[in-house]
Amino acid sequence: MSNASSSAASGAMDPVRAKRGLWSSRLAFILAATGSAVGLGNIWKFPYITGENGGGAFVLVYLLCIAAVGLPIMMAEVLIGRRGGLSPVNSMRAITSHEGLKPAWRWLAVIGVLAGFLILSFYSVIGGWAISYVGTAATGQLTGQTAESIGAIFSGLLSDPLTLLMWHTLFMALVMVVVARGVRSGLERAVSILMPALFVLLLVVVGYAMTTGHFGQAVAFLFQPDFSKLTTSGVLVALGHAFFTLSLGMGVMMAYGSYLPKDISIAKTSITVSVMDTAVALLAGLAIFPIVFANGLEPGAGPGLIFQTLPLAFGQMPMGSLFGTLFFLLLIFAAWTSGISLLEPLVEWLEEQKGMNRKVSTLGAGIVCWLLGIASILSLNLWSDFAPLGMFAMFEGKTIFDLLDFLTANILLPLGGLLVAVFVGWYMSRQALESELSMSPTVFSVWYRVLRYFTPIAVAVVFVYNLV
């Protein structure tokens, strides 16, 4: 065990935090955690899965799932991070040592850190698409195009490995520059600029959407439940997305929690982050659906909604080039803040465990992630027929890109979240939890019971459903 780990494992469970750095304020943590939670899942995935699952009823179920599943696990992950005061893996090592639990529980954190790292490798490729589309929209290439020509632009991008490599490299460089600068000079300073800018851009695009004449239709679609359109599959999708949208099960909230001062309420900050993340998802819907409806397009257009359906709409609307550019800039900001958080847990561990300085650990982790991303790029074109695990029915036809997405979203993240709920709810001492959360006995009891009983069952259902 490293010196840092030994320190954390000793009685007080309070390592020398000043050396590692802390968030300067509650707002700094909220912005960073919200920046992690707000990503492509909010602006890309939430609108299209809402469209596919009938709108209002799906949104209502999603909000309930955020409250009953996402929030309890977020609080548990932040609690682990602050309790241990180290990287996710070393925090788990410190807590299990302090409480006399089996050291094998540290694999809970290993799964999370691995999941975040694998996600970043292909997430960076998608972030590169957004960077590419900023230039495409700004230069007027979307104006007056047909659906076929818009589709050709996207297909042309995916079929060009060198262009994809260029944008992937740029996105990873943006992430690494921020992470290398540390907690206050890097992460905190970046999110203090990017998150307000993201909200402003989002509100500007929503304002533009209000001029389309179809804003009322979009509001009705999002907020008037029609339960006849909601299926069992839709409920499970809502449950799964509520879990994934908050960056749970990937070590991020543990890492960010390790920088959280002791005098800041975990419950209040977690609730604020959940509310802000949900607000961004709903605002993204209010930005996108009026434009979709105004152009007679389908709200359930699937994953192509952002990169094929919306570009078609922007190309047909007044000032479409300007607002298309702003929209994809918004997408970059969302992806960038999430990318930063995905790299942080591994960098934090390399600093502690291997004694690397911040810049070297960032460079090492970033380069390996960048190299893995190249495999995802090639799977979109030159290796599009290569399915590494195709001999198994579950993975049949899945390229490297598809495989990484499936393994993380359907196996590693729910497994990590399930283990967090079980570990905190059933194995950590109640005294330790009460000490960290500092909530009223009644509120604590509600959270504790939900985390112990309802949350693990809900996550397990999603886990099994995704596999079956």
Bin the strand percentage.
under 5%
CATH architecture descriptor text: Orthogonal Bundle
What's the alpha carbon Rg, rounded to whole Å?
Answer: 22 Å
What proportion of the residues is helical, as a percent range? over 70%
Summarize the structure.
It is a multi-pass membrane protein. By secondary structure, the protein is mainly α. Helices cover 75% and strands 0% of the residues.
Textual characterization of the structure:
There is one protein chain. This protein is mainly α. It has a single domain (3-9, 20-467), classed as Hydantoin permease (Orthogonal Bundle), CATH 1.10.4160. It has helices spanning 3-9, 17-20, 26-37, 40-52, 56-84, 88-99, 107-138, 147-158, 161-180, 183-209, 215-223, 232-244, 252-257, 266-294, 309-316, 320-354, 358-379, 400-427, 430-437, 441-467. α5 (56-84) crosses α18 and α7 packs antiparallel against α16 (320-354). The protein is globular, with a radius of gyration of 22 Å. Residues 1-12 have low confidence and may be disordered.
Main traits of this protein?
468 residues, 75% helix, mainly alpha
List strands and helices in order, with pairings.
Blueprint: H1 3-9, H2 17-20, H3 26-37, H4 40-52, H5 56-84, H6 88-99, H7 107-138, H8 147-158, H9 161-180, H10 183-209, H11 215-223, H12 232-244, H13 252-257, H14 266-294, H15 309-316, H16 320-354, H17 358-379, H18 400-427, H19 430-437, H20 441-467
Helix pairs in contact: 1-6, 3-10, 3-14, 3-16, 4-14, 5-6, 5-11, 5-12, 5-14, 5-18, 5-20, 7-9, 7-16, 7-17, 7-18, 9-10, 9-16, 9-17, 10-14, 10-16, 11-14, 12-20, 14-15, 15-16, 16-17, 17-18, 18-20
Keywords: Membrane, Symport, Transmembrane, Transmembrane helix, Transport
InterPro entries: Na/ntran_symport (IPR000175), SNS_sf (IPR037272), YocR/YhdH-like (IPR047218)
Family: Belongs to the sodium:neurotransmitter symporter (SNF) (TC 2.A.22) family.
